[in-house]
Structure formats: C-alpha cells, structure tokens
Amino acid sequence: MGGSNPYIKSADIVLPKTKYKIRFEPEDPSAGEAITVEVDPEKIPYHETGLPGSILNIALGSGIDVDHSCGGVCACSTCHVFVKEGLDTCNEATDDELDQLEEARGLTMQSRLSCQTVPNGTQDVRVVIPAWNVNLVKESH
After folding, report:
1. Which domain holds residue 67?
2. How many domains does the chain have?
3. pLDDT for 95-130, tens place per residue?
4. Is 81:55 a contact under the CB 8 Å cutoff?
5. Is the pTM of this model over 0.70?
6. CA dihedral 93, 6, 72, 120 (to 10 degrees)
7. How far is the CA of 12 from the CAs of 62, 75, 97, in angstroms?
8. Which of 35, 61, 69, 86 is least crowded, fewest Cβ atoms below 10 Å from its Cβ?
C-alpha cells in the first residue's frame, strides 16, 4: 500500500544518506531473539508497506514481522512500537499519527507507529516490538 493515505497530511521525512543499523527487540524474550539490520539507503524502500524508509518498511523488507492491519497507511495503531534509542533522529509524529497512537495500548514517551517513523540515519536505532504486536494466528499458503 506504500504508506500513503490521501486523507491525512504527509509526514515530513529525511531519508538517510549513509548506512546505519536498526536493532529490533521483542519485548517478550520468549518471542525470539533480537535482530539487527543494517539499513542501506540505496535499497530504500525495502518493502511496499509503510512510508519509504520507515521502521515498518525496513522490518518487513528484512523478514521481521510487525503487525500492520491497515497496510501501513496510518489508519490504525497495530504497528505501534517503542523507539528506545535514536528517536531524536526520526521524523516528528504528525497530528494524524498522534491521533492513531491514542488508540494504542501501553503508550510511552517512546511510542511511535512504525509505518510513519523514518530515521534519518545519523545514528543507530533500537526498536522494541511490544508483546501484543505478535500476531500468533497466521494464514498458511
């Protein structure tokens, strides 16, 4: 879906110019181990979901499953994550993102929608995926 929603104001983003790393950590240790991804600006977008270069876009393109019911267009709060390090290198949340975050559970000062959060690459980022974000029911193909 590409992370675009014609009914909301587009986020002001700055794409990275140099490589950096995102560490994805499950909040629940039994959900798996942390995975670190080196982000190459030349490969953005990594996936067709979320804003190009967003945490969701990079996660999905790297095989890391983050639930995203609306397809990454800022129309729900299922891709809610905690940006524990590097939050100041990410674009500011839009009013629309903040409105959607109000529907998310377990909000913290580090809460963001991963579909709308784009790091600029000036430092590494650490993301914690909340335990409730794990979709335990998957359709088989």
Report:
1. 37-119
2. 1
3. 999 999 999 989 999 999 999 999 999 999 999 999
4. yes
5. yes
6. -40
7. 24, 18, 12
8. 69
